[in-house]
C-alpha cells in the first residue's frame, strides 16, 4: 500500500512550469560584478540625485563587511556575487503605455495580465517591473487626483525625494541583513505607494515582477506608506522564465502604517522553481517588514509561495503603536527539489497589540518545507496577544516538513496560543475522490485547496482564483 | 454473449500478499437488489473496494463485467463514469472542502465524461437542497467540509445523500447500516427504496439482516472465506439471523473440503 502511494507521488512530481518563456527584447545589461563603479554607473543610469548614490555606497560598504547567512534550513552551492549582472533594462524607455514594446506587453499577456485590458476593464492599477525598470504604470492619473502616489521607486526618488528620504530604510535598514544590504546598494526598481491621511485607496494596486534577462539579479525595492486612517491593498505577483542556472532575487519591501492606517500586502510568488532534477530556479532571498508605527494601525501579509528553487522569506510586523494588529497568512508549496524556509516575525512593542499567524506548508516530491516564526513580546507590550497555527501537509515519502516556532516573552500579561499539525494526503482520501469521478490530480488539488482554504480566503478575489490555479499547476503530476 | 448487467467471474484478490477473495462468482441483473451477508473477515468489504477499483487490492484472477465490459481495466473514476457508486463503510474526511462544492465537482465530472452539460451552481443548489432533506439532514450540512467532524450516523447519511445526487446505475452499499440507530436506518432505507428502479441495481453488503427488512433484496448471498458460499431468497437472510453463520461454514467444509 505504501509503495502504491509512493509511486503515485513520483508521478505528481512531473510538474511543468507554464510561465517559463523568454521575451526577445533588446536589453541593456551591465557586465557582471559589483563594485563602487558599477553602483555609480547604475545610479547615473537612473539619473539619481547624489544623496541616493551616497546611500547606496554606504550600504555597499556595509555589505562588504557582512557574511551571507546560513542559519536557514536550505542548502545550495555558494553564490558568486561577481558573476551576477546588477542591471538589465529594455533599451527603449517608454513614456506611456502606448510606447511600451509590444513584445513586453505580449509577455504580460501570456502571464494573463494584459495591461491594456486591465487598465480598461479590471480596475486594477498595475506597476509592472520588467527586470529592473518599471515598464508602465497604469491608473496613475486617477489615483493622483485622490493624492495617492503609485509609481516606480525610481520615479519617486526623482519626484518625491522628501518622502523617500524620510522613510527609505527606516523599517529595513541597510545593515539589517546581508541580502538587505546588497539590495540597498544595487536595487534597480520597485514600487512606491503613498496614501495620504484619511484616503481609502479605491482599487487594488498591483505589481507584476518578472525576471527576464539571463544572469541578472533582480533587486526590487518597494516602499508603501499609509498615513493616518489611510487604507491600501497591494498585490504582488512574480514569475521568471526557465533557466538552467540559478538566478538571485533579493528584494526588500518596507511598509509603514501610521495611526489608524491599514495596509494589506498580498503576494503570489511563482518564480521558476528549477526542473525535476533540481537544476536552475530562482533563489528568492527577500526581506519584507512592516511597521505599525501608529496606534490602531494594521498590517496584513498574505502570501502564496509556489515557485523558486529556494525561498528565504519572513514577512514581519513590528507592532509599535498601541492596539496595532499584525497578520500573516501563508501558503508555501514545494515540489521536486524546492526548498522553502519561510515564516514571519511578530514583534509586539506597544500595548494591547495583537497578531495572528496562519501558515500552511505543503511539501511534495523531494522538497523541504520549513516554517520559521518568531513571536516576541517586549517588556512594555502589556496585554499583547498572539495566535499561531502552523499546519503542514506531506505528499509522498521523500519530502520533509519542519516547524521552528520561537517565542520570546518579556511581559507576563501576554497571551499566546500555538497550534501545529502535520498530515499526509492519504491514499484513502484520493481513492474516495476517485470513486466520485475526480481524477487523481483533481483530487490532490481539491484536498490541497481545502487545506489552504483559511489563507486563500484572505486573498483579494482576482488573486484567489489565480492562486488556486497555481496550486494545481505546482502539484501537477505529484500523484499518478 | 453477455447480456448480463453486472457479473463477477472467479474473482481472486489479495492485499499485501494475503489472499482475501478466492473465486467470487456473482450475477446481478438490472433492476435487482442483492444482499451480501457474511461474518466479519469473510471478504465482503474487500469485494466492495475491488469493485470500486482500489489499487492496493491486487486482483490475481477473474473479471468484473459491467454491461459486458471488464471494468478491472478501468480507473476508479472511469468506473464512476460508467455509473458505479460505492457508499463507503468508513467515509473519508476532506477538511476545508465543502460538501456542496465536492459533490458539484463530482457530478459535473461524471456528466462531462458522459457528454452531458455541466450543472451550474444555481441548479445544483436546488437539487442538493431537495435531496439533503430526504436523508434527514439540515441544509447547513451542505456548507460543512466533506465528512469533517460528522458523527458516524451523519457520515452514513451523507453517503446516501451522495447516492441520491449522483444517481448511479449500480450502487454498492458497504455496511451502511452499521452505526445507525433505528430511525436513521429507516430514513436511509427509505431514500434507497426511492431510488429503486428497473434501470438501477443495488448490492447491499451487511453483517445483519436488520436493514434487509427495509430494503428487501431479490437475492441474498452469503460470503464465507472469500467465496459466495450460498445464495437464496430473502428467507436465507432470516435463516442466518436465526442460526448465525456457523452452519454455512460447516456446509462449505463438507461440500468442498476446503481448509477454513
Description:
The complex is a heterodimer of chains A (480) and B (260). Chain A has 480 residues and is of the alpha/beta class. Chain A has one domain. In chain A, 25% of the residues lie in helices and 34% in strands. Chain A contains twelve helices and 23 strands. Chain A has helices at residues 2-12, 36-45, 50-64, 102-110, 115-122, 140-145, 153-159, 161-167, 178-186, 427-435, 440-456, 461-474, and strands at 27-29, 88-90, 125-130, 133-137, 149-152, 191-195, 205-210, 221-226, 231-239, 246-249, 252-257, 262-270, 281-292, 298-305, 310-313, 316-319, 325-334, 339-348, 354-363, 368-377, 385-394, 400-409, 415-424. In chain A, strands 5, 6, 8, 10, 11, 13, 15, 16, 18, 20 and 22 form an eleven-stranded mixed sheet that branches. In chain A, strands 4-3-7-9-12-14-17-19-21-23 form a ten-stranded mixed sheet, with helices on one face. The radius of gyration of chain A is 22 Å and the shape is globular. Chain B has one domain (6-256): Rossmann fold, CATH 3.40.50.300. In chain B, 36% of the residues lie in helices and 28% in strands. Chain B has helices at residues 44-52, 76-81, 99-113, 121-134, 152-166, 182-195, 234-243, 246-256; strands at 6-15, 18-28, 33-37, 57-66, 69-70, 84-87, 94-98, 145-146, 170-174, 201-206, 219-224, 227-232. In chain B, a hairpin with a 2-residue loop joins strand 1 and strand 2. Chain B is globular. Chain B starts with 5 loop residues before the first strand and ends with a helix. Chains A and B meet through helix 10 and helix 11 of A and helix 2, strand 6, strand 7 and helix 3 of B.
Query: Total number of β-strand segments of chain A?
Result: 23
Largest interface: A-B, 24 and 35 residues
Assign the CATH architecture of chain B. Answer: 3-Layer(aba) Sandwich
Question: How many discrete domains of chain A?
Answer: 1
Using the coordinates shown, work out and report the CATH topology of chain B.
Answer: Rossmann fold
- Give the tally of structural domains of chain B: 1
Largest sheet of chain B: 6 strands, mixed
Query: Could you name the ranges of chain B where pLDDT drops below 50 across 5 or more consecutive residues?
Result: none
Estimate percent helicity of chain B: 25-40%
This entry's quaternary arrangement is heterodimer
H/E element string of chain B? EEEHEEHEEHHEHEHEEEHH
Quickly name the level 1 CATH class of chain B. Answer: Alpha Beta
Query: If you compute it from the alpha carbons, what radius of gyration of chain B comes out, rounded to the nearest whole angstrom?
Result: 18 Å
Helix content of chain A: 25-40%
Largest sheet of chain A: 11 strands, mixed
Amino acid at each position: 500500500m505504501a509503495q502504491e502511494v509512493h509511486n503515485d507521488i513520483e508521478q505528481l512530481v512531473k510538474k511543468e512550469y507554464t510561465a517559463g518563456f523568454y521575451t526577445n527584447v533588446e536589453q541593456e545589461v551591465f557586465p557582471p560584478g559589483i563594485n563602487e563603479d558599477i553602483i555609480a554607473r547604475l545610479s547615473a543610469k537612473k539619473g539619481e540625485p547624489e544623496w541616493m548614490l551616497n546611500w547606496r555606497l554606504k550600504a555597499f560598504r556595509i555589505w562588504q563587511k557582512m557574511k551571507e547567512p546560513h542559519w536557514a534550513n536550505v542548502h545550495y552551492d555558494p553564490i558568486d556575487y561577481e558573476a551576477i549582472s546588477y542591471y538589465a533594462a529594455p533599451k527603449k524607455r517608454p513614456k506611456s503605455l502606448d510606447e511600451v514594446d509590444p513584445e513586453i506587453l505580449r509577455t504580460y499577456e501570456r502571464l494573463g495580465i494584459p495591461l491594456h485590458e486591465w487598465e480598461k476593464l479590471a480596475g486594477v492599477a498595475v506597476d509592472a517591473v520588467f527586470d529592473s525598470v518599471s515598464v508602465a504604470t497604469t491608473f496613475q492619473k486617477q489615483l493622483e487626483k485622490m493624492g495617492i502616489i503609485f509609481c516606480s521607486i525610481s520615479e519617486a526618488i526623482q519626484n518625491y525625494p522628501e518622502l523617500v528620504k524620510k522613510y527609505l530604510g527606516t523599517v529595513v535598514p541597510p545593515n539589517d541583513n546581508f541580502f538587505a544590504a546588497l539590495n540597498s546598494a544595487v536595487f534597480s526598481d520597485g514600487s512606491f505607494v503613498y496614501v495620504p491621511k484619511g484616503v481609502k485607496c479605491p482599487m487594488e494596486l498591483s505589481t507584476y515582477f518578472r525576471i527576464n534577462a539571463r544572469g541578472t539579479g533582480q533587486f526590487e525595492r518597494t516602499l508603501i506608506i499609509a498615513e493616518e486612517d489611510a487604507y491600501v491593498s497591494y498585490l504582488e505577483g512574480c514569475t521568471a522564465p526557465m533557466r538552467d542556472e540559478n538566478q538571485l532575487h533579493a528584494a526588500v519591501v518596507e511598509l509603514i502604517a501610521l495611526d489608524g492606517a491599514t495596509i494589506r500586502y498580498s503576494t503570489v510568488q511563482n518564480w521558476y522553481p528549477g526542473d525535476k532534477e533540481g537544476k536552475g530556479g530562482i533563489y528568492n532571498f527577500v526581506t519584507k517588514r512592516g511597521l505599525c508605527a501608529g496606534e490602531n494601525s494594521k498590517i496584513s501579509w498574505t502570501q502564496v509561495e509556489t515557485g523558486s528553487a529556494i525561498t528565504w522569506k519572513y514577512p514581519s510586523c513590528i507592532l509599535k503603536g498601541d492596539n496595532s494588529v499584525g497578520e500573516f497568512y501563508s501558503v508555501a508549496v514545494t515540489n521536486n527539489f524546492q526548498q522553502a524556509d519561510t515564516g514571519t516575525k511578530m514583534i509586539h512593542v506597544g500595548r494591547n497589540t495583537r497578531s495572528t499567524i496562519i501558515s500552511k506548508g505543503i511539501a511534495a516530491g523531494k522538497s523541504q518545507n520549513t516554517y520559521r516564526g518568531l513571536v516576541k513580546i517586549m517588556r512594555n507590550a502589556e496585554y499583547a496577544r498572539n495566535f499561531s497555527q502552523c499546519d503542514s501537509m506531506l505528499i509522498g515519502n521523500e519530502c520533509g516538513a519542519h516547524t521552528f516556532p520561537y517565542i520570546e516573552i518579556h511581559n507576563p500579561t501576554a497571551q499566546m496560543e500555538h497550534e501545529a499539525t502535520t498530515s499526509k494526503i492519504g491514499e484513502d482520501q484520493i481513492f474516495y475522490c476517485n470513486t466520485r469521478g475526480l481524477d487523481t490530480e483533481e483530487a490532490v488539488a481539491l484536498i490541497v485547496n481545502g487545506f489552504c482554504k483559511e489563507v486563500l480566503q484572505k486573498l483579494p478575489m482576482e488573486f484567489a482564483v489565480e492562486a488556486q490555479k497555481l496550486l494545481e499547476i505546482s502539484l501537477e503530476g505529484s500523484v499518478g | 454473449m453477455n447480456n448480463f448487467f453486472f457479473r463477477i467471474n472467479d474473482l481472486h484478490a489479495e492485499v499485501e500478499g494475503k489472499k482475501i477473495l478466492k473465486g467470487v462468482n456473482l450475477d446481478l441483473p438490472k433492476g435487482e437488489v442483492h444482499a451480501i451477508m457474511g461474518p466479519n473477515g469473510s471478504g465482503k468489504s474487500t469485494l466492495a473496494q475491488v469493485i470500486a477499483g482500489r489499487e492496493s487490492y491486487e486482483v490475481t484472477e477473474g473479471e468484473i463485467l459491467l454491461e459486458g465490459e471488464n471494468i478491472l481495466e478501468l480507473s476508479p473514476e472511469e468506473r464512476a463514469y460508467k455509473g458505479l457508486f460505492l457508499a463507503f463503510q468508513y467515509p473519508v474526511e476532506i477538511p476545508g472542502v465543502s460538501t456542496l462544492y465536492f459533490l458539484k465537482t463530482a457530478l459535473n465530472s461524471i456528466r462531462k465524461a458522459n457528454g452531458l452539460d455541466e450543472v451550474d451552481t444555481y441548479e445544483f443548489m436546488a437539487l442538493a437542497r431537495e435531496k439533503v432533506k430526504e436523508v434527514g439532514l439540515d441544509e447547513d450540512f451542505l456548507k460543512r467540509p466533506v465528512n469533517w467532524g460528522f458523527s458516524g450516523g451523519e457520515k452514513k447519511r451523507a453517503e446516501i445523500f451522495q447516492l441520491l445526487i449522483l444517481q448511479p446505475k449500480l450502487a454498492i452499499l458497504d455496511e451502511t447500516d452499521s452505526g445507525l440507530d433505528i430511525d436513521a436506518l429507516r430514513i436511509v432505507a427509505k431514500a434507497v427504496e426511492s431510488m429503486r428502479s428497473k434501470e438501477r441495481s443495488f448490492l447491499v453488503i451487511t453483517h445483519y439482516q436488520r436493514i434487509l427488512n427495509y430494503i428487501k433484496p431479490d437475492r441474498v448471498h452469503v460470503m464465507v472465506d472469500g467465496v459466495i458460499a450460498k445464495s437464496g431468497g430473502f428467507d436465507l437472510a432470516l435463516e442466518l439471523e436465526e442460526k448465525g453463520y456457523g452452519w454455512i461454514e460447516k456446509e462449505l467444509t463438507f461440500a468442498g473440503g476446503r481448509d477454513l
